[in-house]
Amino acid sequence: MTISVPRPAAVNPDNDPRDSRSAISSLEQILIQQPISEVIRDRIEAAGDPYFANDNIAHHLSDEEREALKLEIQAKLQSVFDSLIIDTKNDHNTRETARRVAKMYVDEVFKGRYYPMPKVTDFPNAKELDEIYTLGPITVRSACSHHFVPIVGQAWVGILPSDRVIGISKFNRIVDWVMSRPHIQEEAAVMVADTIENLIKPKGLAFVIKAQHMCMSWRGVKEPETKMINSIVRGAFRSDPYMKKEFFDLIRAHGFHEC
Ligand SMILES: Nc1nc2c(ncn2[C@@H]2O[C@H](COP(=O)(O)OP(=O)(O)OP(=O)(O)O)[C@@H](O)[C@H]2O)c(=O)[nH]1
What we know:
The protein is α+β, with helices and mostly antiparallel strands. The chain has ten helices and seven strands.
């Protein structure tokens, strides 16, 4: 499907994405012929890679293209606000909202799609530590892929290490990177567990996430109390019931409650 070049005709000058286009001048020609999202999408499809809402596509776009993408999103958001019949030309509160939201999506709340994984240094398990360690609570911020409204909650990690370890702050960074995409919680939990497992191949891995979904509290059934808990237990935590119990006892000491 060909979508016309995102070039808002009647946008407030203060809100005109063209103002910042000098930064992407080398992409000007491509943008005139084809929206940058289409260029990137064609590239992903040619590589046979998925681009679901919770997939990371960072390796398919350059920094320059990411900037161009924000401008395209801004222009399209502006037409959503126009269709919502909001006078963004004269309303001082919404005049720059299209730009703000485009930037927020790409650089902040969905950065886990458009930016590569943070650098994670791993070290040898020099003392051959063979005991469980747990970490938490880790603050979880995400958005549900059904309504694009926030998911907020907490997560806990349990590791029985093998021969590699990573710095503890890296668990927070990995959770933040994976969660910063539109998600459903079940898949998010699996993705975090897979990412940690691929990095350090622990003998045991446990990951618990407990979160509240604004699509259930702010709208829809409007139930502010319900939370969803997912737990992933792998390796020794799955095969050894005592180890699994120890993990849950430890994270209860770290503030985890089932209700
Ligand atoms: N399994 C699962 N469901 C979720 C998650 N986040 C949101 N949902 C639910 O996804 C469902 C989407 O249902 P639909 O019937 O397509 O959407 P809807 O008509 O807006 O549904 P209501 O929310 O019931 O008003 C809703 O019940 C949401 O509560 C999640 O992380 N996991």
